[in-house]
Inverse folding.
């Protein structure tokens, strides 16, 4: 294989997938755990709309960015990567943040 556009396209694809499936979900999960820890492990003191908006933004923004990063690969694949991003975020929040590290609600 000669270096050129194919090699560059493959490298760019791996970078996009790495960002969409690992980096962005980790940042989103960190934001969710940080919000909950910052509120003392309970968002009960927050207004309902504030809690929903903050948590939704921490999940939707990384998923939207992953969708945008992978948009060149087609709409279905981009939507699938956004769903993967949300799934990884949920797994990281509950599996790592709450269970393994003992953060979050008591």
């Amino acid at each position: 294989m000669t270096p050129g556009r194919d090699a560059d396209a493959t490298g760019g694809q791996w970078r996009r997938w790495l960002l969409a499936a690992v980096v962005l979900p980790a940042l989103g999960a960190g934001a969710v755990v940080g919000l909950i820890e910052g509120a003392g492990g309970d968002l009960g003191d927050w207004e309902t709309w504030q809690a929903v908006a903050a948590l939704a933004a921490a999940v939707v923004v990384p998923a939207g960015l992953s969708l945008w990063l992978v948009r060149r690969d087609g709409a279905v694949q981009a939507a699938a990567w956004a769903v993967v991003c949300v799934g990884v975020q949920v797994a990281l929040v509950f599996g790592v943040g709450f269970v393994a590290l003992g953060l979050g609600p008591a």
Remarks:
- The chain has a mean pLDDT of 86.
- The chain has one domain: 5-100.
